[in-house]
From TrEMBL, chain B:
Organism: Mariniphaga anaerophila
GO MF entries: NADH dehydrogenase (ubiquinone) activity; oxidoreductase activity
Protein name: NADH:quinone oxidoreductase/Mrp antiporter transmembrane domain-containing protein
Biological process annotations from GO: ATP synthesis coupled electron transport
InterPro entries the UniProt entry points to: ComplexI-like_HydComp, NADH_UbQ_OxRdtase, ND/Mrp_TM
Transmembrane domains' residue ranges: 71-94, 106-123, 129-149, 161-184, 204-226, 238-259, 265-289, 296-318, 338-356, 377-404, 416-449, 469-489, 509-533, 639-658
Organism domain of life: Bacteria
Pfam family, one: Proton_antipo_M
Subcellular location: Cell membrane; Membrane
Keywords: Cell membrane, Membrane, Oxidoreductase, Transmembrane, Transmembrane helix
A cellular component term, taken from the record's GO annotations: plasma membrane
All copies of domain NADH:quinone oxidoreductase/Mrp antiporter transmembrane, residue ranges: 130-409
Membrane topology recorded in Swiss-Prot or TrEMBL: Multi-pass membrane protein
């Protein structure tokens, strides 16, 4: 149980590095070590801070709250047969709303700088996360509908008990979660982390004025957020294994594949036109509804033919 | 009881003869004594299994009873809490008005305040139709006088009268509904006759009449059009009370009627769910495009009425399909949200009142950077904003959590229709939550963060400490319910048991609520610890200050070079332009315009429901009346002619035997 957040945290330290390395390899560069983002953070933790004169205490407390929400979210994630530290009925609602609280504070912090660019980024972040939220809840609803359980642990552990068809749902859910993770972590095609123009950034522009300890916290939190989604995806695809050691190996492999696929997806995909983003994000919810309808068929609530 | 009533009447009337400085203490005394009296009755109702019956007075020879069951007791407690914080806040808020207002004007205000309190208490307690309608009317009138406090402004009077008219349309629906049930059952009109009516007659039509009557008070879309005007027109402590508790009287009425309905509940549940979904989502979308802070908060009340309705709606669906888990959790969430909304909405209105008092503007586009000048106000506004967005660890989250849990738990057990309805409910709550975050990040940031946008904020200072007493009380409850939800669940179980025979689901939810308590405690500890670590780590480091990053350009006017509320709202405004009616007025830059001249961009947004249901019909009516006005020539000869024509007409009709 205590191990879950620990391994997720460990993975999160190298996750951004693996993504960056993959992208470098694909374009033919050698690329930095996978530990480079980790070293960057260590360096940042030792630095002083520069604050804008416009900012208030909101700007200073936001990274702390943001990191804490993500840290808490990590405690809600089960790994296979290992229940989460915090597990109860409806825990996924707390999970989602905690992440939303962190976002609330980061948006407020970006607006606190009084910068037009950061305001624009904050606005986009608020808008995209409001659009992507239904997809997450609909996927969870499909799982609750299928398993009649309402906690992360029970949902994942009962997913494949009833019928083999549930693997179809799992595949669809993994696909949706992959894209939710991309949106939530501000990656392509919604947001391009390597863009150099403030006007086209979303997440990067929100943290323009951060430095030192605060920036390190935010980057650390971003890594953890990615690893959390990786852990969720792992739970979907996990075949029932009794040994924790095998599970752990599979966990690392899934995270690795996830990180590499993020890198690959980012290398071969261009950023959406900003005005096309809402439709694109909403299509995830549409997909999730398709999943929900399939579960209705699996559970015999929709009867197609006699 | 009638002695107490006469005492109250006399003392409140004496307000008109007292000097200004004694008026407030007397009002406070009256409000507190009403709170103690009614609070005792409510406590009694909570601890007993049967409703408490008290003889009130004789009305037209009939004995009138106060009947206090657990639902009434719950509403009494909600009313008392908000009225207390309201009157405490009123002292500071009304201070600037004291020199300019006459003694009578102040007395009228306080008098209406006391009587609004009393009438709301009585609305929750009276079951007999006639007396209920009288106090319902009293409630509308007293709140009308409270709204038009700043009666020297023409718009205040206009919106006050609009409010009064809409309340009377609602009243007419209620009267008709009560009369129908009375006539058909042959019993005296009142709630008790509904039991017989609903068990023998078609349920839905009469329920619909009641729903419209009470729904206008509650502000369900499309009956909400009075809210966004009356709330900004009223002084802030009154807006807080109206939005916090008075509109809940509409919810009370709907709930009271629902307790008598035992058949055909599914249709009613679906109806409630759909109209609440619409109210919730459209309410918050309309809130996003507002620039007047109090109007924005008023639209949020509509959204929260939607959340309450979602809870009650799924509760009723649960009752209809005999899913008692859904019924218990839905009702519990709905009821808890009534309390929660009364807390954070009054807090938000009171803090918005602080801002208005110090800056004299409600237009958020003219504000900014107030967190430095009014730090305590900013803190409490943030608390209210986070709580109303339904985020943990605050109270708004708990009520939404209960509704979510009920819906997720019953997805599997119900039939196809139920699963689809619940999915709709879940998506509704998610959308409302996301939009609320969008909206409140906007208001909080634009009002309190960044740089000042106009001269209005120049002289703003923090309001005096006594104006925060009410906010500390509300803040305590917001955090308390958020952290220790189990403590409120027990009284809530009693309230829900009036509806649902089986409340075991509320006992089953205990581990979840304990889980929330534990995780939120850890959460707060983590924040605290991390903050200390941060302090310790940066202690020896150099901390510099500088300008905000502006791509290396620091010459821009900081007030101009930041995001505005309009641009923040633009995404949602564009996405939902058919609802918000957002229009932009600007001149396109022509192709041959090499050096464009300065130009303006204006955006306007309306409320399509108001346009099509109120403004356009009343405009047409006025046009028609204008046409009739050709007869009003002001010429006495014409008027004499009309009289002669009329007499001849009568004569002819009599001769032809048509009369």
């Amino acid at each position: 149980m205590v191990l879950n957040p620990l391994v997720i945290f460990l993975v999160s330290l190298v996750f951004p590095g693996v993504v960056a390395r993959t992208k470098a390899k694909i374009v033919g560069r050698k690329g930095a070590s996978v530990f480079q983002p980790f070293f960057d953070n260590v360096r940042l933790f030792q630095k002083g801070n520069v604050y804008s004169k416009t900012t208030s205490w909101i700007f200073q407390i936001a990274p702390v709250i943001y990191f804490s929400t993500i840290f808490m979210a990590m405690l809600f994630i089960p790994l296979g047969k290992q229940p989460a530290l915090l597990s109860f009925e409806g825990d996924f609602v707390v999970f989602a709303y905690l992440l939303a609280f962190g976002k609330f504070m980061m948006i407020a912090a970006a607006m606190d700088t009084g910068s037009g660019f950061e305001g624009m980024g904050a606005n986009r972040e608020a808008f995209y996360s409001l659009l992507v939220e239904p997809a997450f809840f609909i996927v969870i609803a499909s799982m609750a509908l299928l398993t009649n359980h309402t906690s992360f642990y029970d949902l994942f552990n009962n997913l494949h008990l009833e019928s083999e068809l549930s693997y179809l749902i799992a595949i669809l859910s993994v696909y949706i979660f992959l894209w939710i993770a991309m949106v939530e972590n501000s990656r392509l095609p919604v947001d391009d982390p390597k863009t150099h123009l403030e006007l086209t950034m979303v997440h990067e522009v929100m943290v323009l004025d951060y430095s030192g300890f605060d920036l390190a916290l935010i980057q650390l939190a971003n890594g953890v957020k990615f690893a959390i989604y990786g852990a969720l995806i792992f739970n979907f695809v996990l075949p029932m294994q009794d040994y924790f050691a095998t599970q752990l190996v599979i966990f690392f492999i899934v995270q690795l594949i996830f990180a590499i696929s993020v890198g690959v997806l980012e290398s071969f995909r261009a950023r959406n036109k900003m005005s096309k983003n809402p439709q694109w994000i909403l299509s995830l919810s549409a997909l999730a509804i398709l999943g929900f309808l399939s579960v209705l068929i699996i559970t015999g609530k929709i009867i197609l033919m006699d | 009881m009638s002695i107490v009533f006469i005492f109250l009447l006399l003392v409140s009337l004496s307000l008109f003869f007292l000097p200004k400085r004694i008026q407030y203490p007397v009002t406070l005394l009256l409000v507190v004594s009403m709170i103690i009296l009614s609070g005792q009755v409510a406590m009694q109702a909570f601890s007993s299994t049967k409703p408490v019956n008290i003889s009130f007075m004789r009305l037209f020879g009939e004995e009138v009873f106060l009947v206090v069951d657990k639902i009434s007791a719950f509403f009494v407690l909600v009313i008392n809490l908000t009225m207390l914080t309201g009157i405490l806040y009123a002292k500071g808020y009304l201070k600037p008005y004291l020199p300019e207002k006459s003694k009578t004007a102040m007395a009228l205000h306080y008098f209406s305040f006391v009587w609004l309190h009393l009438s709301m208490l009585l609305v929750c307690m009276l079951r007999d139709g006639l007396s209920f309608l009288i106090v319902w009317e009293l409630m509308s009138f007293t709140s009308f006088f409270l709204v038009i406090f700043e009666s020297e402004k023409a718009s205040t009077i206009k919106y006050g009268i609009q409010y009064l008219i809409q309340m009377h349309i609602g009243f007419a629906f209620l009267l008709v509904a009560f009369l129908i049930s009375g006539i058909i059952t042959g019993e005296p009109i009142g709630f008790e006759s509904l039991e017989k009516y609903f068990s023998t007659q078609a349920v839905f039509p009469l329920f619909l009449l009641f729903f419209v009557g009470f729904g206008i008070k509650a502000g369900f879309i499309p009956f909400h059009t009075w809210l966004p005007h009356a709330h900004p027109a009223a002084p802030s402590h009154v807006s807080g009370i109206m939005s916090g508790v008075m509109i809940k009287m509409g919810i009370y009425g709907i709930i009271r009627v629902l307790t008598f309905i035992h058949t055909d509940l599914l249709a009613i549940g679906i109806f409630l769910l759909i109209i609440s979904f619409i109210s919730g989502v459209i309410g918050v979308i309309l809130a996003i495009v507002q620039h007047d802070i109090k109007k924005l908060l008023a639209y949020h009340s509509i959204e929260n009425i939607g959340i309450i309705g979602l809870g009650i709606g799924v509760g009723i669906i649960g009752m209809a399909t005999e899913n008692y888990t859904l019924a218990a959790l839905g009702h519990a969430g709905g009821f808890l949200h009534i309390l929660n909304h009364s807390l954070f909405k009054s807090l938000l209105f009171f803090t918005a009142g602080n801002v208005y008092r110090q800056t004299h503007t409600r237009n958020i586009e003219k504000l900014g950077g107030l967190i430095k000048k009014m730090p305590k106000t900013a803190f409490f506004f943030l608390l209210g904003a986070v709580a109303i967005s339904g985020l943990p660890p605050f109270n708004g989250f708990i009520s939404e959590f209960l509704i979510y849990l009920g819906m997720f738990k019953e997805l599997h057990t119900g039939d196809l229709l139920l699963s689809l309805l619940l999915l709709g409910g879940i998506v509704g709550l998610v959308l409302i939550g996301g939009l609320a975050i969008y909206c409140f990040t906007k208001v909080f940031s634009v009002v309190f963060l960044g740089n000042p946008r106009s001269y209005h904020t120049e002289n703003a200072t923090e309001v005096e400490g006594s104006m925060f007493i009410s906010k500390y009380i509300i803040g305590f409850f917001i955090v308390f319910i958020g952290l220790l939800p189990l403590w409120v669940l027990k009284p809530l179980t009693g309230v829900v048991s009036v509806f649902t025979p089986n409340v075991s689901a509320l006992i089953d939810v205990t581990p979840s609520l304990q889980g929330i308590t534990i995780s939120m405690s850890i959460f707060i500890l983590v924040i605290g610890a991390l903050w200390l670590v941060r302090k310790w780590m940066t202690k020896t480091k150099t901390i510099e200050t500088g300008p905000t990053w502006g791509c290396g350009y620091t010459g821009a006017n900081p007030a101009v070079h930041q995001y505005t509320a309009t641009s923040y709202a633009d995404y949602v405004g564009n996405l939902a332009k058919h609802i918000t009616g957002t229009r932009k007025h600007y001149k396109i830059i022509e192709k041959d315009e090499i050096f464009p001249a300065p130009r303006k961009l204006e955006t306007h947004s309306t409320d399509i429901f108001e346009d099509y249901l109120v403004s356009k019909p009343s405009g047409k009516l006025l046009k028609f009346l204008d046409r009739i006005a050709v007869f009003q020539t002001g010429n006495i000869q014409h008027y004499l002619l009309y009289a002669i024509v009329f007499m001849i007409l009568i004569l002819v009709l009599t001769i032809l035997n048509l009369l």
